[in-house]
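Q: Make up one entry.
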Amino acid sequence: MTKIVQEIQGQREAEGAWTFRMDGNGNKTLVGRFIGSPKTISEAAISLVPGSSAVVPAEWPSPEGYVWTLSGVEATHESPVEAILTLTFSLDRAGGSSGIGSAGLADPVEVADFQNIEKPLTSAPFWSFNSEGAHKKAQAAKIAQLYIDAETVDKADELLEKECGKLNIDASGMEVIRKFIEKRLAGIEAYYYPAPTLSRTEESTTAPNDFGQEMAKIVASPKMENIPVPEGFKWLGAGDRLTYSGGVFTRERSYIGANAWDRDLYEEAT
């Protein structure tokens, strides 16, 4: 606080300079406004670094003994000869004279959400082949389309036998294609698949050293402590947001679950 006091020495307080507020969550804010020459105000604004701890002097209108954090500095030129320095101080949620501690941080918030997304029939669990034609799913789908577009059932069956023979698709593979055809003829072109998302928001008095490192990477285990992570899914880091206010870092991380992630496109998070 000594440096802050030194920087504003010689500056006079603006009229109605001090504002003290406390919201319903116990967050306390103190705002002071000082008037001086543009040069001295600019120099003071540059030298003051948000995040500095400060014990407000007794002559300042704040609750006695509180330790504050300088959270905002703004210099405004009102005229060629006068400028205003606005300092914003924030207090930990718990109050007290020992600064921000873990007891003053909000509890972590975890959210799990499931939504249905549409996937094509060629992604359905039944669309698999046990023969040597297993790697030719795209061709199999084309065979099914030839069947659907055929003018007669006899012609369709003939095309199915012929094309499957070319690709060495055995009887079990043909049954898969027939099942696909039945669903397409019934008007079914897609199916619903569960898409889970997880998020965790937590607060800390220190900045994280791994910010952004999980973005667009495969995560072995999402960082959830209370909500159980749904089983049977692979997870991808989807979001990492960090905000700072009043000495508190708030971080929100999110993850997307899927049955698999292409490792040619996404690497493992370290």
Notes: The two ends are 41 Å apart (CA to CA). The helical segments are 2-8, 38-47, 137-149, 153-166, 171-185.
